[in-house]
Design brief:
With about 350 residues, this protein is α+β, with helices and mostly antiparallel strands. The protein folds into 2 domains: about 15-125, Rieske [2Fe-2S] iron-sulphur domain (Rieske Iron-sulfur Protein, 3-layer Sandwich); about 140-330, Alpha-Beta Complex (Naphthalene 1,2-dioxygenase Alpha Subunit, Chain A, domain 1), CATH 3.90.380.10. The protein contains 5 helices and 17 strands. It has helices at about 1-15, 160-170, 175, 270-300, 315-340; strands spanning about 20-25, 35-40, 45-50, 55-60, 75, 80, 85-90, 95, 115-120, 120-125, 150-160, 195-200, 200-205, 215-220, 225-230, 245-255, 255-265. The strands form 4 sheets. Strands 11-17-16-15-14-13-12 form a 7-stranded antiparallel sheet, with helices on one face. A hairpin with a 3-residue loop joins strand 14 (about 215-220) and strand 15. The longest helix has 30 residues, at about 270-300. It starts with a helix and ends with a helix.
């Protein structure tokens, strides 16, 4: 019984998302100068831009009576609660209690503020459980930071646990079957042996003896943010830039809803960058959405407890490795919490 209880607690940690990590929250264009309330990582959060356009974030909960700050008024780097006028700064400090100046609440750090960054067309948030002054750096893969690459963000929300999305990406073999009609995944063997190869920040799960033919490998990495990388070989009709690179990162919204981020990247510069971006918008984007729709339809129609009735085989070694790794991270988080 104790083992089952421990497993339930560990699952609860993973279901809401591990703490002290960076997560993608939403595309940048979803947040403007008016407050926006979003459910992410087991919390309601409010996002807004200050007078300089910098994104700010707080827990969407006024320290006074718990009213949603998202229903208040933006005052630069703080929000004035619409219920009683209490002002909460982006670092969680209550700067003004107009109904009772000088009271104990005024000047206290009673709210929960979050550190946010904008990069690659997305707002990222550091998932701390307490207020911290300085977060660790946001370390993204080179495809999202280097000038040698050009990318498009693809954002969607899928019904279901975000961990099923992780499993799907850590399963290269499904490309041979589910996506076999795709212009970029029609080739390759229908059987394969796989191996796991460790990297500096994680591991690669790959087919043995086949590369640059189909969806042949997936990389998992932890650089203070969890992300996945894969490549799809492209015919010459797909334009310049070599293989098509996909970077994925996934954030729990609620137990049965996931925020799904895929950056579609090519290594191009100069005139080739312009050609690639034109081809993508006019010829390739619709095809890529069609492939994602195939994944979505499968995952959204899986039962929430489908992974309790699995019979795994050699093609699933990567999924097993990743699940075990995440469970170990969740157990370590629980141990730190108990010690604290």
């Amino acid at each position: 019984m104790k083992t089952n209880q421990q497993q339930d607690v560990t699952d609860a940690v993973l279901e809401r998302g591990l703490v002290n990590l960076w997560y993608p929250i939403c595309p940048s264009n979803l947040v403007g100068h008016e407050p926006v309330s979003l459910q992410r990582l087991g919390r309601k959060m409010v996002f807004w831009r200050d007078q300089e356009g910098q994104v700010r974030a707080l827990e969407d909960h006024c320290p006074h009576r718990g009213a949603p700050l998202s229903k208040g008024v933006v005052l630069g780097d703080r929000i004035q609660c619409g219920y009683h006028g209490v002002q909460v700064r982006c670092d969680g400090v209550v700067t003004s209690v107009p109904g009772s100046p000088g009271c104990k609440l005024e000047g206290s750090r009673a709210g929960l503020g979050f550190h946010v960054r904008e990069q690659a067309g997305v707002i990222f948030l550091y998932n701390a459980t307490t207020n911290i002054d300085t977060p660790p750096p946001l370390n993204l893969p080179e495809e999202l930071t280097g000038d040698a690459y050009s990318s498009f963000i693809c954002y969607t929300e899928w019904k279901g646990d975000y961990r099923y999305v992780l499993d799907n990406v850590m399963d290269p073999m499904h490309g041979t079957y589910l996506h076999k009609q795709s212009h970029s995944m029609a080739a390759g063997q229908t059987t394969a042996n796989f191996r796991i190869r460790d990297t500096e920040h994680g591991f690669i799960f790959e087919k043995e003896g086949q590369r640059d033919v189909n969806f042949d490998w997936t990389e998992w990495a932890d650089t203070g943010i969890h992300w996945m990388r894969l490549e799809i070989p492209y015919p010459k009709t797909g334009g310049p830039g070599g293989n098509f690179i996909i970077i994925g990162s996934y954030t729990p919204i609620a137990p049965n809803l996931a925020a799904v981020f895929h950056w579609r990247c090519r290594k191009v510069s100069g005139w080739q960058r312009d050609v690639w971006r034109f081809l993508y918008r006019n010829r390739l984007e619709a095809r890529h959405w069609a492939v994602l729709e195939q994944d979505r339809e499968i995952l959204e129609n899986m039962e929430p407890d489908a992974n309790q009735y699995e019979h795994l085989y050699q093609h699933d070694m990567g999924i097993v490795r990743l699940r075990r790794h995440l469970r170990n991270l969740a157990k370590a988080e629980l141990e730190r919490s108990e010690k604290a």
